[in-house]
Amino acid sequence: MGSPLRVAIAGVSHEALSFSPILARMKDFQVMRGQDILHSAGVTDFFQTLKTSELLPSEIEPVPLLVARSLAPSGLVEEGTYLQLRAEILHGLRGAGHLDGICLVLHGAMLVENIWSGETDLVRSIRAVVGDEIPIAARLDLHANLTQEFANGVDTWAGFRTAPHRDAQETLVRTLTLLTRIIRSGGRGHPAFIRVPMLLQGEKATTSVDPMKSLLAMARKIEEQPGILNAEVLVGFGWADAPHSGANVAVIQL
């Protein structure tokens, strides 16, 4: 058996209500570091899943850095708060040694004061540290507003498939599984990404009824095709008002 796959786990997750004047500050986040991340929902489930798969838990070495999750939706993230969290993640990556992949725990609709798309900025900053050769997979909310730069900067992403959300843990397991598949393939994920010029209120895009029910079923059929890693349909989040707000779809080829 060769060396275990070293996978860093990090992220900042927040859903921005840009019409709210109340900024999200450090006190509004649950910040986990190190072993606390490994014991969190989703990460623990992933390693439990490995016990019944062909890939043994000993073949993956998690490198938990920092995961910050906002306690509730609010306005934009205060710039200083975001920069402090970003700096700690980047510092952890610089000191992590060799990495085979990075798993990002994000929301997808985070807006940062004076920066705007927090997810895009974070991926851009991470790539500046680790380069372009390390695969990156992101866990996202169904209500994620994505930019083309974000899609160009990561290998794949997995979004919630239920609204109201009931699959947060399963989605993180799926993200880590997709990342592991990419690493073991020796290749990279290649997203075909399209932003749909449409805004929907969340309550008009529940997943138990059409159109989302049929769209998600269509995405599952696409994933059965050879060479397709995954397909994602995301509703977007209109209350995070930004030029890139809106629904988006992607098919990721391996």
Account of the protein in words:
This protein is α/β, with parallel strands linked by helices and 254 residues long. Helices cover 30% and strands 24% of the residues. The protein contains seven helices and eleven strands. It has a six-stranded mixed sheet with strand order 2-3-1-4-7-8, with helices on both faces. Helix 5 links the parallel strand 7 and strand 8. The longest helix is centred in the last third of the chain and has 18 residues. The mean pLDDT is 93.
Helix-strand blueprint:
Layout: E1 5-13, E2 29-33, H1 35-38, H2 43-50, E3 60-70, H3 79-94, E4 101-105, E5 111-112, E6 116-117, H4 118-130, E7 136-140, H5 148-153, E8 156-159, H6 168-185, E9 190-195, H7 212-222, E10 228-234, E11 248-253
Parallel strand pairs: 1-3, 1-4, 4-7, 7-8
Antiparallel strand pairs: 2-3, 5-6, 9-11, 10-11
Helix pairs in contact: 2-6, 3-4
Helical content stands at 25-40%
Structural class: alpha/beta
| H/E element sequence | EEHHEHEEEHEHEHEHEE
| Number of helices, where a helix is a run of at least 4 consecutive DSSP H or I residues | 7
Overall number of strands: 11
Query: Any low-confidence stretches, pLDDT <50, length ≥5?
Result: none
* Rounded radius of gyration (Å): 17 Å
Provide the spatial order of strands within the biggest beta sheet. Answer: 2-3-1-4-7-8
Main sheet makeup: 6 strands, mixed
Question: Beta-sheet strand percentage?
Answer: 15-25%
Mean pLDDT: 93
Give the overall silhouette. globular
What distance separates the N and C termini? Answer: 24 Å
Q: What keyword list fits this structure?
A:
three-stranded antiparallel β-sheet; 7 helices; 254 residues; 11 strands; single chain; six-stranded mixed β-sheet; alpha/beta; 24% strand
